[in-house]
Amino acid sequence: MDQKETAQTAEAAGRAETAGPDAEGEHARPGAFTNRAMNTFSPADEEKQRGVRRMKLTATGLLLFVAVVYVLAKWASHQGAGPWAGYVAAAAEAGMVGALADWFAVTALFRHPLGLRIPHTAIIPTKKDQLGVSLGEFVGENFLSEAVVRQRLRAVGIGSRLGAWLAVPEHADRVTAELSAALRGALTVLRDSDVQAVVGEAITRRADAQEIAPGMGKMLEKVVADGGHKRAVDLVVTRAHDWLVLHSDTVMDAVHGGAPGWTPRFVDRKVGERVYKELLRFITEMRDMPAHPARGALDRFLSDFASDLQSDTDTRARAERLKSEILGRGEVQDLIASAWTAVRSMIVSAAEDERSELRLRVRSSLLALGARMSLDPKMQGKVDGWLESAAVYLVTTYRKEITSLITDTVASWDAEHTTKKIEANIGRDLQFIRINGTVVGSLAGLLIYTLTQALSA
């Protein structure tokens, strides 16, 4: 690249930077950043390009040197300098041929030699898209195949390495902290109204879809059989007795209020006192006598009710109607929705507290998992198998998308700038081909001339 080309490249880069990303639609194209990198020269690229120019001068200088040697050797041969001039001329002639052939080959990679549109020249700019397709196919066949992925992952031994890493307390603390941060972030992003609606709908739909009467009947039957209801009965009759003791006037006033208007007041009072005393006696006996007939009657009632919940059609239908009425009440729906708020607050608080039970249990589980993975070959095999299957699924399912990323990206590059970019990065090494061609050609020419002279002698 001469000074004019360098100036044009710098000017194009300046225009691209001034226009900004929107000028070329970089926000709309996935490969925009790559395009910009391939279409502009960085200071490092400029330095590499200067190195290419120096090597070009060296290779060209060597070509001119052997050409001068050839001319001098031929002149000396005509002047009768002796046999040695023929050997030198043959070596120099073959060196020129090798240098020119390799110059043509190297130049044909990037441009048309001498501007002549010779077939199969300017390979990179004209075959850029085909090279991108070939590169994508090469990557897909040799790097994204199932056998290669499984072999590489199996050789790495991720299961044992991950286990050994997790078994270190500092690493477990780090993973716990990262998981806590991720959990807090996820809960922060979620809107309470959306989650509450989903939870409420899920609970209501599940409750509507499942009949509750048989399950309640089985549970009640087991409670009665185990005597678990007796403590509830004890609590109820004890509270009833205490209430009656404290509210005797209320009970008697209730009796007075229900008496006919034509009865004498002292009769109403006597009746009220009698009712109160009998009611208090009944509750007291029921409280103090575990074998009280009323308790037995209650046991039989609960047993019959449990059986009806499981087998009686009318009882089950009434239970379903009651369930629907309860679920349909606004208070119940508000309670279901508010449950998420409480759970969310509890989880966020636990995730923020380093000494919370949640984080301590997660840390302990990670340490135990790491210790087991580092020592248990079966566990390591399972983890490796999961990872291999996941990786194979990704590469086999999205192989086309991955390889198309390569082909589409290469296709979006500007041919001229891509050629200059590639030449800047590998051109210096390619110039050694010209130098080697000159040297090897000279040696080959000298050897051929020597063998020819020997055979003709």
Would you give an account of this structure?
The protein has 457 residues and is mainly alpha-helical. It folds into 2 domains: 192 residues, no CATH class; 136 residues, no CATH class. It starts with a helix and ends with a helix.
Element layout with pairings:
Layout lengths: L2 H17 L12 H8 L3 H36 L4 H28 L12 H4 L1 H15 L3 H11 L1 H9 L2 H21 L2 H18 L3 H14 L3 H17 L1 H11 L6 H24 L4 H19 L1 H16 L1 H23 L4 H19 L1 H21 L1 H14 L2 H42 L1
Quick rundown:
The protein has helices at residues 3-19, 32-39, 43-78, 83-110, 123-126, 128-142, 146-156, 158-166, 169-189, 192-209, 213-226, 230-246, 248-258, 265-288, 293-311, 313-328, 330-352, 357-375, 377-397, 399-412, 415-456. It has two domains: 3-138 and 401-456, no CATH class; 193-328, no CATH class.
Supply database-style keywords:
0% strand, rod-shaped, DUF445 domain-containing protein, single chain, transmembrane helix, 457 residues, 21 helices, 2 domains, membrane, transmembrane, mainly alpha
Whole-angstrom Rg: 47 Å
Beta-strand content bin: under 5%
Number of domains: 2
Q: Which regions are unreliable across 5 or more consecutive residues at pLDDT < 50?
A: 1-34
Question: What is the H/E string?
Answer: HHHHHHHHHHHHHHHHHHHHH
User: How far apart are the first and last residues' alpha carbons, in Å?
Assistant: 50 Å
Helical residue percent band? over 70%
Count of individual helical segments: 21
Gross morphology is rod-shaped
SS-based structural class? mainly alpha
The overall pLDDT average reads 81
The main β sheet shows up as: none
Number of strands: 0
